[in-house]
Specification:
By secondary structure, the protein is α+β, with helices and mostly antiparallel strands. The chain has a single domain, classed as Beta-Lactamase. Helix content is 33%, strand content 26%. It is built from four helices and six strands. The chain has a six-stranded antiparallel beta sheet, sandwiched between helices. Strand 2 and strand 3 form a beta hairpin. Helix 1 packs antiparallel against helix 2 and helix 1 runs parallel beside helix 4. The radius of gyration is 14 Å and the shape is globular. The two termini are 19 Å apart.
Length: 157
Amino acid sequence: MAEDLTIIKGTKEEQYRELIPQIKGLLEGETDLIANLANIASALKEQFGWLWVGFYLVRKDELVLGPFQGPVACTRIKKGRGVCGIAWEKAATMIVADVKKFPGHIACSSLSRSEIVVPLINKGEVFGVLDADSAELDAYDQTDKRFLEEIVSFINM
């Protein structure tokens, strides 16, 4: 297991390409889901400086707050509500350039301006979501989608 994180400069793609092996190192040999989610959230927050990054886990009929980095967050989200609930319902990554223009957006922080939510899928079932919020408009794109989907594929239930 890696114990240090090296912050990388460069393009977004270069940052992800250098960060991914470090995340793999953090997960290597660790089987505890919560520990792994906590380290992934921390690595992403440290590297990219996003406002908020963390996980929600499916518990019965709602998403429940899991490990995160950033300001306090909403604790429970119903399926189909907000960006996280819709990503869960559709089992698809959602990118929102301006959360104020997203119908039904759940404002956990008034500082959030854009968001990406990536579902965690195991054996065809969504068991959680990775949620990242930025204080900047239009902060997330297809590069983030591609690499964040790769990162969540390392997470084992």
